[in-house]
Please model this.
Amino acid sequence: MNWISNVVPPRIRSLLRRETPENLWVKCPESGQLVFHKDLEANQMVVPGSGHHMPIAPKARCGFLFDGGRFDELPLPEVPSDPLKFRDIKRYSDRLKEYRAKTGAPDSILLAQGEIEAVPFTVALHDFRFQGGTLGLAAGEAIIAGMAAAVEKRTPFAMFAASGGARMQEGAFSLMQLPRTTVAVRRLRAAGLPYFVVLTNPTTGGVTASYAMLGDVQIAEPGAVIGFAGARVIEQTIRERLPDGFQRAEYLRDHGMVDMVTPRHEIRPTLARMARILMNRPTPSADAA
Amino acid sequence: MRSYLSFEQPLAELDAKIEELRAVGDKGGAVAIGDDLARLEAKSQKALVDLYSNLTPWQKAEVARFKARPHCLDYVAGLIEEFTPMAGDRSFGEDAAIVCGFGRFRGQAICVMGQEKGSDTETRLKHNFGMPKPEGYRKATRLMELADRFGLPCVAFVDTAGAFPGIEAEARGQAEAIARSTEACLQLGAPSVSVIIGEGGSGGAIAIAATNKVLMLEHAIYSVISPEGASSILWRDSAHAQEAATAMRITAQDLVKFGIVDAIVPEPLGGAHRDPAAAIAATGKALDEAFAQLSNLTPDQAREARAERFLAIGRKI
Model:
């Protein structure tokens, strides 16, 4: 806070802020260093100095993930909206409108098909900006459709998870997405296609208790918070302080819950390599790559 | 001495008066007492009917969690012959929050599992209040796989506030254990039926409830998060649990309409705790009917019917 923020009315203040270079610079939550936003975006939202992984929007990630940044977005299935006509301090239908306006997406999942190092892939990505990437009917149905599309095209499937868990405003319908998506995972398995899960910050609750923990290969991004129960709930239940690094990607690796902690830049080659190995396809020659 | 739920207070007062009158009568009181007693008893009965035919979702949550309500082991004792409990996940430990074993239901060999909350301080601690840890779900997974190998059907008695939220539970992979248990349910080649007998608490419940048929007791609840949890997250304070219970549609009556639950098991008047034997008998009858409807399925058909049952949920409302 400086003197100007105390004096200038809020509306003008926000105008002022837009003009200041403040927004062009992003502060690393880990090291506190300031990064020029273009440098951050060019580096897949990984802070160049500290290696801290910032959230990345699904489309931006696809741009880095697929060969030449080319991918096809798959249509999302239509589902009943707001099945319970839910209202807390706000109407759920109004919340949905807000998140749709904010993200330009119908719900929290993006489906894409494209090639990763020439291996065709089907990919689903949670958008954490859309109501915390929560899992309701729309997201569940989208994941099921994505896995079915992989079966149809006979591609491996990769799930980029980022979610606070089940969407409470859909009550038991959101809970039912756990078995429903698990049915889709089983069909992927039955078709003999590899299933990759990339756990990004954060992935918690019901999402971890279903498709996000059922991958053939479990990859986590550095520092990502991953867990079933929320840290606050655990602390209140057991009345103890949680250990350092609890529920972080590295903690999960050390406890045998994920195969690897992989920096964002390494995820593309890792997916392609593991897909080729699991599907027993040849390594491309160096000059072809 | 009967114990009463908080919303049953008017009823408790009536019943206390009835008891008083009876005591007077036993001592050889006046002639008029017989009439008064009959009138009060009728009034009490009517109050009970009125109360239980109009329970709010929150009141149902209270009934579903009531300490005197029959729990998993009561159903096992009442319905399963030759029950043989089995322990352990073969990699870490035994978790008494989930009871698993084999036995017979109406003569048919069957795999049995369910969360047990316990009935007094000692057993509540032993069973961790019905909140399973990863080893509990891994034991359930192990037994379902064993049942599948022998083509045996499975029954699950669901009654949990949720999976245990603790450091060790997270360290040992609570989420993965629940996901694998759900997957084991879906993998079964033999028919499976679950009954929500009290609380169906989120992932901790679904882990053993991804079955061909899902039954629910009349006053049980089934929810993605507890009303208290929803209140503190969505309303940002703990005062809105009753509102959350209503808004989330946690009752058997709502869930049947949504196709999430297949049938409601009627409870005796005043809830399962007033006549546990009747509640258990009604559950046995409903289970028998549910299994009868599934008896002609081949393993592939059983799996496919189960998968389609869940996929159909929410597609049309």
